[in-house]
Write a structure and sequence with these properties.
Blueprint: H1 17-30, H2 42-49, H3 53-66, E1 69-72, E2 76-79, H4 87-105, H5 111-129, H6 133-150, H7 154-173, H8 182-198, H9 201-211
Antiparallel strand pairs: 1-2
C-alpha cells in the first residue's frame, strides 16, 4: 500500500495510541486516501503511523467490526470492497436509523434551523439529478449529521454513530448499483425540502422512506 501523507493530529497527550491509529486509518478510508480493495500491510502502516504493531492490529480489528476493513486469516487485510449485492440492504438500514433520528429531532428544531436543512435537501436533489454523487453524499451527510446532533435520544445517537459511518461508506462505494434509482431518490429529497420547512413529521418520514428506498410507493 502507498503510505498516506502524514497530517498534523489534534489530540491530547492522554489519547491512547490505538485510538489515534483507529481514527487515522478510518479517516484515510473515508476520505478515499486508502481505496476499496487496497491491501493494508503492517509494515507500511507502521512506517506511516510511527507506532508498534499492537495498536495497528487493535485498530484493524475494530475496523473489521465496523465493516470498513476485511480480513482473511493468513491471507490479507484490505479496505472493504464494494458490495453491490448488499447496497439496497445497507441503504435501507441507514434509512431506518435516520427516520428514527429525524422523528425525534424534528420537535427540537425551530423554523430558522429547519430552513437551512430544507435547503440542503434541495441541494442534494439537484446534485443527484446531475449525477454528482460524491457532492450529493457529502451534503446529505451534513444534513443528517445536524439531525443526529439534535436528536435527544442518546441511545439512538450512539447506535447511529457506531454503525452509520460504515454503512454509509458501503453505500457510497457501491453507488453505481443504484443508478436506476437515482431519479426516484432525487425526487424524494425534493419532497423532503417542504416537509422539513413545515416541520411535518409524517411527510419527513415518508420522504425519507423513499430517499432510502424503504418504500417506493409512498
Amino acid at each position: 500500500m502507498p503510505i498516506p501523507k502524514a497530517e498534523p493530529q489534534d489530540r491530547t497527550p492522554r489519547q491512547l495510541a490505538r485510538e489515534r491509529v483507529l481514527e487515522q486509518i478510518r479517516d484515510a478510508i473515508l476520505r478515499g486516501v486508502l481505496l476499496p480493495g487496497e491491501r493494508l500491510d503492517e509494515a507500511s502502516l507502521r512506517a506511516w503511523l510511527g507506532v508498534s504493531a499492537t495498536p495497528i492490529r487493535q485498530a484493524l480489528h475494530a475496523l473489521v467490526l465496523e465493516g470498513l476493513v476485511e480480513s482473511a486469516p493468513q491471507s490479507h487485510t484490505i479496505v472493504a470492497a464494494p458490495r453491490p449485492d448488499r447496497v439496497i440492504a445497507n441503504m435501507q438500514t441507514v434509512g431506518v436509523l435516520m427516520i428514527g433520528t429525524a422523528t425525534l429531532a424534528l420537535p427540537e428544531l425551530a423554523r430558522d434551523v429547519r430552513a437551512p436543512l430544507a435547503a440542503k435537501a434541495a441541494g442534494v436533489a439537484d446534485l443527484l439529478a446531475a449525477r454528482e454523487i460524491p457532492q450529493a453524499s457529502s451534503l446529505a451527510g451534513e444534513l443528517f449529521l445536524e439531525l443526529i446532533e439534535r436528536c435527544p435520544n442518546d441511545v439512538l445517537v450512539g447506535i447511529v454513530r457506531k454503525v452509520g459511518t460504515s454503512l454509509g461508506y458501503q453505500v457510497f462505494t457501491a453507488h453505481s448499483a443504484l443508478d436506476d434509482d437515482l431519479d426516484a431518490v432525487a425526487d424524494a429529497y425534493r419532497a423532503l425540502q417542504p416537509a422539513l420547512e413545515a416541520g411535518d413529521a409524517t411527510q419527513v418520514q415518508n420522504a425519507l422512506r423513499r430517499a432510502f428506498l424503504i418504500d417506493r410507493s409512498v
